[in-house]
Amino acid sequence: MNYVGHLVGNFDVATLVTAIFFVTFVFWLIVYLRMEDRREGYPLEHDLSGELEAMGPHAMCDPKTFHLARNRTYTVPNDERDTRPVKAAPSRRWAGSPLIPTGDPIIDGVGPAAWTERADIPDPMWDGSPRIIPISSDSTYWLAPNDPDPRGMKVVAADGVVVGEVTDVWIDRPECMIRYYQVGSVLVPFTRGVLDAKKRTVYVSAVDSAHFNAAPKIGGSTITLRQEDRILGYFSGGGLYTKTVW
Known about the structure:
Blueprint: E1 6-8, E2 11-12, H1 13-36, E3 64-67, E4 73-76, E5 88-90, E6 99-101, H2 105-108, E7 132-134, E8 154-156, E9 162-165, E10 168-172, E11 177-183, E12 186-189, E13 193-196, E14 201-204, H3 209-213, H4 225-241
Parallel strand pairs: 8-14
Antiparallel strand pairs: 1-2, 3-4, 5-6, 7-10, 8-9, 10-11, 11-12, 13-14
């Protein structure tokens, strides 16, 4: 019996339309998505030679310009490449092998100490003002009177050496929380310090005194996104590589 819509055997119009849909829509959707996800980070570099790898059947997409806050724009893909030297060597002569630091991994930014070259501008509020500021620069913020005030407390590094005292705290204004302890011109991530109110001491187990003195410095009353990433990477890497004596 030949039903309405049947073409050949059990292959009917509905089957034909479904096949056309998958071929024309799903296939090109996959191609489109694979091109779009190559806006940044491509073409890939070979781990050993550093040469650019072939793109394969999916080429780079056309440049697209994104309009950001404060009249900034960013166009991708572009020809920008991270030219910072990787101060580590592969442990084996095959791509993807673990890297072994060739110097001081904390200072060189290897492994967990690595950081991204983010925009060199402060993280802005809705009105364009910096989101993270020292609490001393804005009288509309204060520390809760029932909580210990870390300002004036001594700071002890992982090797037990006193490296200074907390001169200020930097706060995240929208979140109403402390982000950094300021020790001279060094900002210590709040999560990397353990505060002992009775001893009026902040213990920093992430770095020893030598690395503390070599930590990234800030100037003025603002911190940029790039500086934040560098500082967080530095102390995070120290959390893995540094040995604590206390």
